[in-house]
Amino acid sequence: MRPRRRLWPRGARLFAGLMAVAAAVGAGSERIQAQVASDRPAALLVFPKIAVDTRGVTSRGRADTLVRVTNISDEAITIKCFYVNANGHCSNAPATVCMPGAPPGPDNPCGPGAICIPGWQEADFQVNITAGQPVAWLASEGAVACEEVVGTDLPCFPLDATGQAAPSNNGGSRVPPVSEDPFVGELKCIAVDRNDAPVERNELKGDVEIVRSDADFIDVLAYNAIGIPALADANDRDNVLVLGGDGAEYAGCPNVLIMDHFFDGALDPVSGRTVTSDLTLVPCTEDFLTQAPVTTTVQYLVYNEFEQRFSTSRPVTCFQEIRISAIDTASPDRSIFSAAVAGTLTGQTRLRGVASDKVGIGNTLLGVVEEFRAGAGGAAFNLHLHGTRTQSDYIYLP
């Protein structure tokens, strides 16, 4: 016997279809609102890579970073920001900046018999942004009220408190220059009220442009800030921000980061130039109160174009910028991230921070990739974010 098909009146079918679509859209909107992303406004912005080198002493030449933060709402908002100085310093010359793990050369000028000691220091500042206003500053210069920099074209805050009633001004805003030159590190900005208490306002967007130059060319590498949205009616406004997991006040950081990339040493089929990539990773958990470092072991699963799999792991403490072919070995031509070893031009890498059982510490990560072509320009791009973790991350504010 053939099964009897239930016949719906046309109007009923249409209504049911519309209800199903509405439910799907509603469910999707709910998920979207709780996701960490680089293309949607949020209450917490993470800029994984800030670089300054105005004298060109490192291997990448002169560099500066333009930071932009935009308030997309029709009300004023205040942000509390934290620079993380990730410079290392030579054991035989504490004032000399170096890059931990770099081979001897401009990034590791310490010389024989000395080591590059990692560092991690934060500096905080506050910016008041009016309704719908974008603000910007150069990391090397910082920013003050525009009347204080008359005669220059540096980024500054145009709306001073004179003749402008609060909150329609940038009064009280001041961004310090980064603490060292050269400098490499991270920037986090959090939506707060005028008393520095966190607020549930997903109204901030940000981006950076890392400008590099030498005698022959100027190159601009841009990426979007990673936005971590606040959850509705969840913030207790204390100095511990809970990201994901039990008692979450903000969306949880991604469980897995996905990087699509050329393998180092591959020849770009369009330009014919050799490609290398630098990966920067920062932890979601950070303690700005005691400045205690967080170490996470990162697992890497690497797939070439034939879906052959390679794997490795490496610890990250506070901040890590590294050439991808140096992740697993000191000999780049023997790395699983080398085109000669992988056997294809491009691949995909899945990164995951290994969870620990330490209370009050999470082990997820965020990051950005810079891609360079020998003798030509480069590009920066955000990693893909996949899934969330049941374990919480925490940001401890001063």
**N-to-C span:** 74 Å
Write the H/E string, N to C.
HEEEEEEEEEEEEEEEEEEEEHEEEEE
Alpha plus pi helix count: 2
How much strand content do the residues show? 35-45%
Gyration radius (Cα, Å) is 23 Å
Which sequence of strands runs across the widest sheet?
Answer: 7-3-9-1-12
Brief synopsis:
It is built from 2 helices and 25 strands. The protein has helices spanning 10-33, 339-342, and strands at 44-52, 62-71, 77-85, 88-90, 93-98, 116-117, 121-129, 134-138, 183-192, 204-213, 218-224, 226-228, 240-243, 254-262, 266-267, 274-283, 286-287, 295-304, 309-317, 320-323, 346-353, 365-373, 378-382, 384-388, 393-396.
Q: How would you describe the overall organization of this protein?
A:
- With 398 residues, the chain is mainly β.
- The protein has two helices and 25 strands.
- It has helices at residues 10-33, 339-342, and strands at residues 44-52, 62-71, 77-85, 88-90, 93-98, 116-117, 121-129, 134-138, 183-192, 204-213, 218-224, 226-228, 240-243, 254-262, 266-267, 274-283, 286-287, 295-304, 309-317, 320-323, 346-353, 365-373, 378-382, 384-388, 393-396.
- It has a five-stranded antiparallel β-sheet with strand order 7-3-9-1-12, with no helix packed on it. A five-stranded antiparallel β-sheet has the order 19-18-21-14-24, with no helix packed on it.
- A hairpin with a 4-residue loop joins β18 (295-304) and β19.
- Mean pLDDT is 89; it is low at 1-33.
